[in-house]
Structure formats: structure tokens, C-alpha cells
Specification:
Blueprint (H helix, E strand, L loop, with lengths): L5 H9 L1 H8 L7 H47 L1
């Protein structure tokens, strides 16, 4: 008996029949939908990465603006 992988557990929880068919070597008939779903996940991943980078850039710009404000106020009152 071979060990069951974590990805197979997820597949079994989603649809036990599909998991069993895959164990028997039967290919899915909805390959186009599966490919489209995979591409959708890739696009979403790129969007998540872009939003994270945008957030980091915003924090850096905020810190630069605060540093410039402190430098301006210090030069003005000293």
C-alpha cells in the first residue's frame, strides 16, 4: 500500500469519486476547465504579489515623507 499525499487528501475531500477514478488511472474529461482554473490561480498569485510589493513601496514612501517632514521642521525651528 502506497502512502497518500496531502494533495490527494484535498482531492478526496473535494470529491471521493474523482479521487478513486484518479487512483484507477482514469483521466479527467474536463481538461480545458482544469487548465483554465490553473491559469486563474496563477493570475491571482501574480495579483497578490503585486499588491504586496505596492504595499511595501507605499510604506517606504511614507517613511521617506516622514523623514523629510522631520528634517524640514528641525531646520525651520533650529
Amino acid at each position: 500500500m502506497r502512502p497518500i499525499r496531502a494533495s490527494e487528501v484535498g482531492s478526496y475531500l473535494f470529491c471521493a469519486r474523482a479521487w478513486w477514478y484518479r487512483q484507477q488511472g482514469v483521466e479527467s474529461t474536463n481538461q480545458a476547465e482544469m487548465t483554465a482554473g490553473t491559469e486563474l490561480h496563477r493570475q491571482h498569485g501574480r495579483t497578490v504579489i503585486a499588491s504586496g510589493l505596492t504595499r511595501i513601496l507605499a510604506i517606504i514612501l511614507l517613511l521617506v515623507a516622514l523623514a523629510l517632514l522631520v528634517a524640514f521642521c528641525t531646520a525651520r525651528f533650529v
